[in-house]
Amino acid sequence: AEGREKLNALEQAAAAEDKDANQRALASLENVKPGTLGYALAAFSAGQYEKAEAAFDDLLAANPDDSTVNGYKGSLVALRAGKAMPLAAVGIVKEAYVFLDRAVSLAKTNAELDSAYTNRGSVSMAIPEMVFGKAESGAADFIAAAEARKLLATDASSGITSLDVASSYCDAAKCYEIADKRDLAETSYAEAKRLVDVAGSGEGARLRLVLFQHYEMGKYAREETESKTDVKKEKRERPKAETEADRKSLASTLASR
Questions:
Q1: What is the pLDDT of residue 130?
Q2: Which end of the chain is more exposed for a tag (fewer CB within 10 A), N or C?
Q3: Is the four-CA dihedral 219, 214, 22, 248 of positive or negative sign?
Q4: Torsion angle, CA of 75/77/79/81, rounded to 10 degrees?
Q5: pLDDT tens-digit profile of 129-184?
Q6: Closest Cα partner for 214 from 234, 230, 229, 244?
Q7: Residues with Cβ < 8 Å from 7, sequence gap 6 or more?
Q8: Over the stretch 34-48, which tens digit does the pLDDT of each residue have?
Q9: Residues near 99 by Cβ (< 8 Å), separated by ≥ 6?
Q10: Three-state SS string across 157-187, please?
Q11: Distance between CA 126 and CA 178 in Å, rounded?
């Protein structure tokens, strides 16, 4: 009962955090000058994908070698795959990786590396593993993003904190789970939890919810499971549900930087 109460509280806090982030993105969209990177990012964060893609297309035409613009363009292309027929979706995802891979190759600063790896990792986590087999490489991208964020976090003006680093490790763990690399997943979860514990209570409700679900709810599930076979089945099915949720909220994942 106590665990369920804490779960409900975290779910409510995470929903409120998501709502606040969306409201801030909408407010930013109204106050940022069109034709700028800030405007394109605000449109993306607000879920206005057609407007965001048009804005990124204009920026890409003006500067095709901009790492950040290529990364978000790749994510926007990938989002279109979710509405396409299966065969068409495969081609769309391949097109997305042209931009995503280019973003990584062009990235030079820590901010660009964070953006590029997070964009590509988020797409790799969201697309069907049985078709593309990108989950493990997605985990590597999130760990690379975590390394960039560690360096960014040393400068308060970057806006990056240890919770952002923890979020990258948590996403890496999800990817490892999808790839059925459970030991590596546990290592990444442990690092995410360590950083959250050091940070103490406060922001990061969505991140805290994921960690609670993994450590506490997962423990209850294991206690109620009677065989190792069922344990394996439960641990492999949970990421599939999360993958579907990640596919539907890919923009939120990226916007949480």
A1: 94
A2: N
A3: negative
A4: -140
A5: 999 999 999 999 999 999 999 999 999 999 999 999 999 999 999 999 999 999 99
A6: 234
A7: 209, 212, 213, 216, 217
A8: 999 999 999 999 999
A9: 70, 71, 73, 74, 77
A10: HHCCCHHHHHHHHHHHHHHHHHCCCHHHHHH
A11: 10
| pTM, 2 dp | 0.84
The pair of structure tokens assigned to 30 is: 């109204």
Measured CA to CA in angstroms, residue 57 lies from 36, 41, 69, 102 at distances of 11, 12, 8, 15
The residue whose two tokens read 């279109």 is: 80
Buried-state track 69-94, b at ≥16 Cβ within 10 A, e below 16: bbbbbbbbbbbbbeeeeeeebbebbe
What b/e sequence results for 216-250 when a residue is b if at least 16 CB atoms lie within 10 Å of its CB, and e otherwise?
Answer: eebeeeeeeeeeeeeeeeebeebbeebbeebbebb
- Structure tokens of 58? 């204009």
